[in-house]
């Protein structure tokens, strides 16, 4: 009898194996968007040691790939110019049909709570214009893929997310920055846009990095593998929320994170560079663009003095990360919440970078003024800038956010005026100025722009402690 049941079990397993359907990662599913004009990677599981046939409806061509003894397989599929919907048939003896597949542009949005913040907002924390955003959400050309929050000590591959069409319901739950970025691209490019959200509030950059990319850094907690897992342990978010989509062809990444790293700001630029380098290497898709947001002003409860150092580190990262760009948000913060409500201006500024740098939209400005040099003339400190081809403006408002100091290194609020393409800063209390700072505090708000409407970021002319 025992042998009988063993035989039945063996036959049952064999039947299940023969009937096994093609299994794909969640990112490959109905309604997905594939990156246009690329040789995109496909992978999954099927029956072992058989020929898997992949047929794409946009050209009716077939690709045959031999599955391994474990059923695993990998292949590549050439995608056409943007369009759709299409179908993809995968056949290992049993057909799996992917329907409603669009070809277009695919981006990832990642980071902590300011990227996670959905269009509907958080408790007592609104997104500006949320209802109007939802009124405009019925857009067939935008598809959403939101990865659920998860943690893992080891890299995992399975997630339960799915592609969703853009609707008021799906958009309300999706990243306000990520969705609007996708919507701006779709509106301008007139092609389908896929946006993949992988974000988790209150998290350190170290959690989004691999153990490999963290080599050489020591200013973070590294618990034992047997300790209770928490969301800020090194690599746990990469393992659970990035690794499952590694290899899915993308155009680029937008990133909004940093508030949590105010406790160790001096290495943030190098960590971000190490993270991006490792992600790109694992993706094996070249140096895709990486656009990120400098954190916004806020009245922080702790580590207030470290916020300006984080501003500096984020600004430095642009020179460390090839094909990157930073959005300044010094004019779009909040004194009451770490989650500023105006997510539209942030998404739009991220879109400026992508449209100008990656989609060849001419005459679109994407970079605000950058401090260049300081000249002292008597009681005046004269500031010069780059990235101001047409000059500077404060839109008829009095300039704010400037401070000046003499040899005593005590900074006090200063008067500042635009003079041609320079800003002249002075104070009656400082007769012999030596240094100027702009919005170099956690809560300081700025209002100086280039004529194209992009803001100057926080900076200082000194190197004082």
Can you put this structure into words, describing what you see?
The chain has 2 domains: 103-357, SGNH hydrolase (Rossmann fold, 3-Layer(aba) Sandwich); 370-460, no CATH class. It is built from 9 helices and 23 strands. It has helices spanning 2-19, 113-116, 130-135, 168-172, 176-189, 236-242, 268-283, 307-320, 343-357, and strands at 33-35, 39-45, 51-56, 61-66, 72-78, 83-91, 95-111, 142-146, 163-165, 193-199, 252-256, 290-293, 324-327, 370-377, 380-386, 392-393, 402-405, 412-413, 415-419, 422-426, 435-438, 449-450, 459-460. Strands 1, 3, 4, 6, 7, 8, 9, 10, 11, 12 and 13 form an 11-stranded mixed β-sheet that branches. A 4-stranded antiparallel β-sheet has the order 14-15-20-19, with no helix packed on it. Helix 5 packs across helix 9.
């Amino acid at each position: 009898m025992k042998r009988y049941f063993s035989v039945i079990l063996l036959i049952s397993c064999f039947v299940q194996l023969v009937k096994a359907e093609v299994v794909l990662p969640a990112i490959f599913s109905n309604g997905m968007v594939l990156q246009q004009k690329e040789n995109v990677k496909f992978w999954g599981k099927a029956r072992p040691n058989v020929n898997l046939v992949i047929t794409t409806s946009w050209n009716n061509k077939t690709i045959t790939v031999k599955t391994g003894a474990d059923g695993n397989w990998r292949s590549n599929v050439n995608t056409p110019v943007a369009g759709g919907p299409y179908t993809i048939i995968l056949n290992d003896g049993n057909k799996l049909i992917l329907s409603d597949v669009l070809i277009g542009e695919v981006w990832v949005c990642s980071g902590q709570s300011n990227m996670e913040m959905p269009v509907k907002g958080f408790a007592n924390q609104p997104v500006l214009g949320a209802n109007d955003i939802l009124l405009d959400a019925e857009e067939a050309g935008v598809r959403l893929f939101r990865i659920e929050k998860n943690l893992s000590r080891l890299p995992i591959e399975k997630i339960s997310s799915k592609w969703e069409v853009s609707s008021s319901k799906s958009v309300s739950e999706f990243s306000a920055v990520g969705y609007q970025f996708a919507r701006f691209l779709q509106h301008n490019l007139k092609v389908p846009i896929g946006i993949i959200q992988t974000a988790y509030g209150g998290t350190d950059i170290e959690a989004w990095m691999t153990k490999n990319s963290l080599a050489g850094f020591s200013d973070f907690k590294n618990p034992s593998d047997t300790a209770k897992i928490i969301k800020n342990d090194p690599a746990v978010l990469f393992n659970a929320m990035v690794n499952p989509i590694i290899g899915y062809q993308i155009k680029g990444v937008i990133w909004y994170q940093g508030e949590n790293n105010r406790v160790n700001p001096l290495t943030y630029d190098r960590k971000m560079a190490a993270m991006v380098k490792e992600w790109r290497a694992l993706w094996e898709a070249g140096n895709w663009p990486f656009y990120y947001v400098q954190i916004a002003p806020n009245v922080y409860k702790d580590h207030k003095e470290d916020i300006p150092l984080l501003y500096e580190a984020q600004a430095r990262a642009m020179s460390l990360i090839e094909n990157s760009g930073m959005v300044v948000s010094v004019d779009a913060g909040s004194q009451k919440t770490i989650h500023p409500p105006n997510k539209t201006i942030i998404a739009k500024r991220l879109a400026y970078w992508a449209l100008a740098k990656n989609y060849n939209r001419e005459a679109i400005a994407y970079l605000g003024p950058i401090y260049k040099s300081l000249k002292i003339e008597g009681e005046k400190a004269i500031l010069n800038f780059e990235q101001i081809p047409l000059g500077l403006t404060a839109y008829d408002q009095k300039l704010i956010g400037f401070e000046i100091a003499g040899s005593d290194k005590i900074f006090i609020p200063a008067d500042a005026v635009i003079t041609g393409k320079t800003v002249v800063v002075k104070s009656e209390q400082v007769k012999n100025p030596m240094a100027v700072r702009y919005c170099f505090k956690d809560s300081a708000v700025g209002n100086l722009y280039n004529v194209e409407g992009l803001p100057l970021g926080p900076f200082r002319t000194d190197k004082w402690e």
